[in-house]
Design brief:
alpha/beta, 2 domains, binds flavin-adenine dinucleotide, seven-stranded mixed beta sheet, five-stranded parallel beta sheet, FAD/NAD(P)-binding domain, 301 residues, 6 helices
Length: 301
C-alpha cells in the first residue's frame, strides 16, 4: 500500500513527487513511455524561469526526476489502464500489475491531436510524425511539411528548417496564433514556405510517405506537395480515455477545483490533463507543487 500513486511522469507528476517525497509519503510514480512527458522533447525551453539562456527539455526533466528520486519517489515504467476508487483505497491497474494507495494524483498530460485524413495512420512512423524534436533527424536534407498555426507548429517549422532541405507550413487560416517573435523569425526564414488557407486532405506514398494533397479552403483547388515527412501540430487532446466515468471530465480533461481536487475524494489532478486555460511547463509545475502540498495535508488529516 502506497500513500500516493502519481499517474504520469511529466513536469506535473515529477513535481508532485518532489513534494510528497519530501513530506515522507510513500510515493509511486507510473510512467508509460518516457520520463519528462512532452517537456522532455522541447529542444530549447526558453520560457521556464531560472535559465536566462534557455535549457534543453531533456536536461531539465532529467533534473526534475533526479530531484524527486532523491526524496524517495519510486518510478516504474508501466502504462496505467484503470483507476478505481474502492472503500479500502484507490486501485491502479497497469499493463504489468495492480497497485493500491490512499491517494492518487492524475498527471497524464495531453497528447497530439491527429488530422484524421486518409493515409495518416498508414504512414504514421514512415513519414507522418507528431514530434519534430523526436523525429527530425530522419528527414535530414529532405523536404518536409508542418501542419498547424500555433506556437508549436511555428517553432517546429523553425527547428526543422535547420535540418531539412525545405519546410512548408500548412495552415488553414491566413493569420497565425503563435507568438509574434516566432512568427517574425519564421517570415524571415527563406527555407520556410507558407501554405496558408490550405488543409491536408490526403497523404500518399508507396511504402514510405511521398506526398501530401492539399486543398484550398476558399477555391477548393487541390495541390500536390512532394514531401518526405509531415509533422502534425494541430493541438492536443487529453491523454486518458480510461478516466471517463471514474472522475468528472469535460472533453476528456479532468475537472478539478482550484487546488486540484477531482470529483472523487482522494483523487487529485495536476498539469495539462486538468480543464484549464494555460498549458505550459511552468503552469504544470505550479499545479504539481500545489497538489503535492494538498495531498500531503489530506493524508495527514
Ligand atoms: C511540441 C511541444 C512544444 C512545447 N513547448 C513548450 C515551451 O516551449 N514552453 C512551455 O512552457 N511548454 C511547452 N509545451 C507544453 C509543455 O510541454 C506541457 O505543458 C507540459 O509538459 C505539461 O506537463 P504535464 O506533466 O501536465 O503533462 P505531460 O508533459 O504531457 O506528461 C504526462 C506524462 O504522462 C504519461 N502518460 C500518459 N498516459 C499514461 C498512462 N496511461 N500511463 C502512464 N503514463 C501515462 C505520458 O507518457 C507523459 O510522460 C510544449 C508542448 C509540446 C507538445
Amino acid at each position: 500500500m502506497y500513500d500516493v500513486i502519481i499517474l504520469g511522469g511529466g513536469p506535473a507528476g515529477l513535481t508532485v513527487g518532489l513534494y510528497t517525497g519530501r513530506a515522507k509519503l510513500k510515493t509511486l510514480l507510473l510512467e508509460a513511455s518516457h520520463i519528462g512527458g512532452n517537456a522532455a522533447w522541447i529542444d530549447q525551453l526558453e520560457n521556464y524561469p531560472g535559465f536566462p539562456f534557455g535549457i534543453s527539455g531533456t536536461e531539465l526533466m532529467d533534473n526534475f526526476h533526479k530531484q524527486a528520486e532523491r526524496f524517495g519517489v519510486e518510478t516504474r515504467m508501466e502504462e496505467v489502464i484503470r483507476l478505481e476508487s474502492l472503500p479500502e483505497g484507490k486501485k491502479v491497474t497497469t499493463t504489468e500489475g495492480e497497485y493500491r494507495a490512499r491517494a492518487v494524483v492524475i498527471a497524464l498530460g495531453a497528447k497530439r491531436r491527429e488530422l484524421g485524413v486518409p493515409g495518416e495512420l498508414e504512414f504514421k512512423g514512415s513519414g507522418v510524425s507528431y514530434c519534430a524534436t523526436c523525429d527530425a533527424a530522419f528527414f535530414e536534407g529532405y523536404p518536409v511539411a508542418v501542419v498547424g498555426g500555433g506556437d508549436s507548429a511555428v517553432n517546429e517549422a523553425l527547428f526543422l528548417s535547420g535540418i531539412t532541405s525545405k519546410v512548408y507550413l500548412i495552415h488553414r487560416r491566413e493569420g497565425f496564433r503563435a507568438n509574434q517573435t516566432s512568427v517574425d523569425k519564421m517570415l524571415a526564414n527563406d527555407k520556410i514556405e507558407l501554405k496558408t488557407n490550405k488543409i491536408v486532405i490526403r497523404i500518399e506514398g508507396e511504402g514510405l510517405m511521398q506526398r501530401v494533397i492539399l486543398q484550398d479552403v476558399n477555391t477548393k483547388e487541390e495541390e500536390v506537395l512532394p514531401v518526405e515527412g509531415l509533422f502534425v501540430s494541430i493541438g492536443l487532446v487529453a491523454a486518458a480515455e480510461f478516466l471517463e466515468g471514474v472522475v468528472a471530465t469535460e472533453d476528456g480533461y479532468v475537472i478539478t477545483d482550484e487546488e486540484g481536487r477531482t470529483s472523487v475524494e482522494g483523487i487529485f489532478a495536476a498539469g495539462d490533463i486538468r480543464v484549464k486555460r494555460t498549458r505550459q511547463v511552468a503552469t504544470a509545475v505550479g499545479d504539481g507543487s500545489q497538489v503535492g502540498m494538498i495531498v500531503s495535508s489530506y493524508l495527514k488529516e
